Structure formats: structure tokens, C-alpha cells
Amino acid sequence: MRLRKFRVQAFRCIHDSGEIRVGDLAAFIGKNESGKTTILEGLTLLNKDEKIEELDLCDEMAEELKSEKKIVEGEFELVDNEIRAIKEKFPDIPEIQKIRIFRTQKNPMVQYDFAGVKISDSTNKALNSWENFVSKIEDFMSIIPNHIRIQLDTSFLEQDMPTSKDYFNKSMSEFNNNIYLLASEEKQVTSEWEKIYQGIENVYDELLKGTSERTALENFIQDKLHPRFVYFSDYKKIHGNINLGEYLRETKDEKKTIDYVQEFDNAETVKNLFYLAELDAEKLTDAQDSPPKLIKLLNTASKRLTDRLNPAWKGDPILVDLRYNPGNIMSVVISDVHKDGTVTNTGLLNRRAEGFKWTFSFVVNFAAETQKSELKEAILLLDEPARNLHPIQQRGISDLLKGLAGSNQILYATHSPFMIFDYTPGNLLVVELDKKKHLSRIYYDYWNADDTTLIPILYGLSRGLVESIVDREVGTNSRPVIIVETMSDATYLNAFDKFLQDPNISMNPLNVVAAYSKNSVLPLAIFYRDHGYNTFVMLDNSAESHQISSQLRANDFEAVQIIFFELGGKSIQSIEDYVIAGDYLHAVNQTYEIKLRKEGYTNLTTEFLKLKDKKGILETLNQIWDENQAQGWDKFDNEEICRYICEKIALNEADFLSDKTRDQFRSLFRLVAERIRQHQNIMSRTKPVEKAQV
Questions:
Q1: Rounded distance between C-alpha atoms, residue 690 and residue 688, angstroms
Q2: Segment 394-407, tens digit of pLDDT
Q3: 3-state class (DSSP) for residue 192
Q4: Which of 67, 326, 364, 505 has the fewest C-beta atoms lying within 10 Å of its C-beta?
């Protein structure tokens, strides 16, 4: 079964999640304490053996909980083999493709709803069920002589349906032998019994539980098809050496503490290590007196362990070597295997960095738990599966999850943009906490979530940009790139490119990339340049920007690749100074008219600006806003003015922009185009000339 919708109510901090659709590989994104873990733990209540504890119920909904309430419910889509299995057992019931499973706080059992399919609740004597099978034997017992009946042991018929076929067949065989032993002279008795016992070897496989179609169907689903939610929340770290004696005592509950030479956080981690290696600790201990046998056992286990760990291991592969030491100690030794086949950095796991040990331990635990046969066709719930992992290793875990999604459904919580690889609604959900009501809310349409909640998603969406930087083929064949210091710079360039509509100076041949901050301009430019892009950098005329220019020159950038803002051969402070003062003040006055009306704001004029005697318009406006701090003006927001101007350009409502402003931006675009041509000439002169072949 695959979970397609779910709803959680009155569970801890969640009043009502609403009905949420999920895919086969779904990620929950949210800030700390938003309720992601609560959602995952709530879904585990759909396991047939789980129980709802009193402390799990939402205190704030005590009144609503006086009546029976569905705490968690899920709508499941049956796969083809499950649909066929039900049809074979219940041929008279219409085909069932979906099932709703739910649990309430009043009923200790999970309950089923078959989505409108009519199923009889009436007792059906013709049903091939355990109860009806027992009833046949009871009817048979009622007609046999009393002296035979009182000698037959029917206690196994008074119990629930046997859980194993072997036990059923053994019990029936003994019962059959006793009948022939006690009634050998009663031909009518043995004749009637043969009608029941005929073909008994196939009876168990066909038996159902229940006296009505509905109860039999529910019991069949619960026994054979009920989905299993497997919750992973804690991944313990391996340090190095295993004291096998202590480990065996722990697994047999002879001790409650484990005293390893290098302590393991949890004996379960050792079990998982041995599981992946298919290594029996008792056999290992028994083989210590036979070195050849011990070496063969460890070598085989080491190879098996290496083969099973490397698919989830990104970067250079690792070689795992299990070694037996005096004192019944087994060591975990790790080596790095390089692309040329060389093996280096061999040493005990406990000598590796903490991050490496955590990564290794996580892969061991997770790979073991997910490779166990009982996890096939399960719904895996993972809470932060990639915490503490380097992004490259996170991508390894994401590949592992993708592989598991073929035979399992996976729902996981994460904060990491590197663990998001499917942006389809239903495969990506965000969880937010309403701090006033302390309630969690899940967004299926995640783009409507709070901006801070969306940060990992937005970074993940930008991953393609990162990959385009490091793909040298993309860089070599791409348009020139111009790095600008702020998002406002990029917005102005793109807006005025459209506004001017001049094919001779259009920015269309360029990719405009905004740096995150001034101190990220240098590394971003170097990354682009070193990965094959024809890279230019546009800077304002601040002291910090001139320092960036010096650093770029020191890193082999040509002077023509560094573009400072200028007008008529004179430096200007910022891109905003290409907009003449009157045009820019129009945008300022329109933007702040309503915002500052209560503070007595009046329209600013160019004459007022001249009185401030500052270098550029931004410096002047910042001073004016600083002088009015007491009136609640806060800080001047040049990005908001940028948005106003560029929005008006996009809406074709920018008549307030004069011809002089347009001409000044044309001069900027001409400057960029000229620098590109100059750089192309330099590159063509310095490009090595191929020697002619003789």
C-alpha cells in the first residue's frame, strides 16, 4: 500500500493538519519545533500494534476529545498484487482500490473504511473462515458417540486461529490420528470425518478470520496487507573497537551496561554492523583458536561490508577491514580507495574525524535497517536523516532514499536544501508553527509558507545555478557573465535593458549574476572565471569596491573585466546615480508618501538634495533619513525604490523617467559592450597559435 493522503488531529501540538496529499518520496521542511517530528510520530499510530497514550492527546482540545475522534487517518492506494490478493480471497466483493485506515482515542484497534464499497456485516456460514471451520468440527463432534467425543482433545480449536501453518497441520494431524485410533470400528464416524479432513494440507492457506465478509476482510488486511510505518529517529556513532564478550552479554541481557575499549553508543549499532557483514559474533569467538578459519571469516565479512556501504558513500570509496585482536576485541579499520586503485589513510575508525565517524555510523545503521527484508513495501519515516553530514554525503543519502523509494514509500523531515530533490506538490511539504496558538500547520502549496520556512527550499531551487558554475562545458559555451554587487544592480540592469529596447546595446548576450554581499563578489567571480565563463565584474565606487578590484587584479583579472560605474568619464557612486535626481525623487516621493504621512513627510526636491553636498543620491538620502530618526523614519530603503521603478517599467508606466535617464543607462550598456569587445581582442591575441602540420 502507498499512503496518498493523511490527516492528524488532536495529537500533541497539532490541532488539525488538514488533509495532506503525499507522494512516494516526500520531504517535510520546517524550522525547529515546527511539528515535523510530531507529524512523523503521529503517522506511526497507524501501525496495527501501536497505542495512543494519554499524554499524546492535545490538552487544548480536551472538550472535543470527550467524544470519539480520529486522531490519525490515512487514505491508502493498493498496488496491483494487493488488489488481486483481496479479489482471490473475496471474489464476491467489488474490487477495492483504496482503503482509509484510522485510529481513535476511544478504540484500541485500528479501523478500516472501504471508500463506499458495500461489504456485508451479516454472518456468512459459507465463508471459508477459521470460525466456520471450527464450527464444522463442532457439528461433527455433536454427532459422534459420547465415549469417543470425551476422549478427543479439542483445546486447539478453542484458541484463536493458529499463527503458523506448521502448528495448524501438526494439531490437525494429531486430531486425525486420535479419531482413527478411537473410532476405528465406527465407519460412519470416520466417513464423516474424511469429508472434513480431505485436502487438509491446503486448508490453512485459504482460511480467513471472521464470521462476516467485513470482519474477514478486515482481519485479512490486518494480517496480510496492513501497511507498516518504520520510524528512524536516532543514529548512534561508532568509535572503533568492539569487545565481543561485552557485546554478546549485552545482546543476551546479562548486563545492562556496555564497557567497550572504545565505547559504542548503542549495542544496536553493532548489531547493524554485523548484519551488513553477515557476521555471527558467537562464530567469531569460537573461531579465535583457528587462525586460518578466523582470517577467512573476517575477510569475507569485510568484503561484504565494504560492498554494502559504498553505494551510499560519496567521494572516494572506502575499504572496511574487520580485524581480530587479543582480548576478544574486534577493530574496525578504514582505508581510502582512490580512483587509480591506490589505498591510503589506513587506520582505526576512532582515529578519523568526528564527522567521518558520524557519517560512517549513519550509513551503517541506515543501510542495515533498510536492507532488512522486513522493510520491503514499508513506509519509512526518517527524522533528519542527513544531520551532521557534508553536502556531498547528503547527496549520497538522497541517492539511497531514491533507490529505496522503488519498493518503499519514504517520508522524511529535513532542514537541508541538499536533501530536497523533488519539488512536486505532495513530495515537498512545509510545516509551520503558529506561535500564538502553538499549533502546527502543513502546507501542501508550500510556496505560500513563511519566507523563513522556505529558505532551505529556495536554496535547493538554486542548486542548478551552482551546478552550472562547476560544469565547465556549460561555462565554455555560455554567454558572458557579469557579476554585480547587489540584487538591486541586477534588477536595474535587466529592467532598463527591456525599457530601452535598443538591440545595439542590449544586455541579452549577458548573464547578470547578483552576489550575496560585497565580500562574496571576489570568490563568485573567480569560480565563474575558473569554470570557463567569460566573466566581468561591475562595481560601485566605494572604498570596499576598489579593494575588491585590487584583489581581482591580483587573481589575474584584466582591467577591462572590472567595470566601475561612470558617467562622461567621471566616477559615480552607485547604479542609482544613472537615474537623474528628479526622476529618482519621483519614485522616492511616491513610495514614502503614505508610509511617512503621519510623520509630516513632504515631497523632497532636487534643490533640497543640493544642500546636503554628498557624493551620490543614496548617500544624500541616507543622511536625510538619519536626520529624521526621531520622527520614526528608520533607514532609507533603496531596494524598495528599485522595486518601484522596475515594476513601473514592467507595467509600461514609467513615463516619469526622462530621456536623460535613458541616455545615461545607454552609456552604461555601451561601456559594458565595449569592455566585452576589448576582452575578446585580448583573448584572441593571447590565444596560442596552432602550428601547421607538415
A1: 6
A2: 877 777 777 777 77
A3: helix
A4: 326
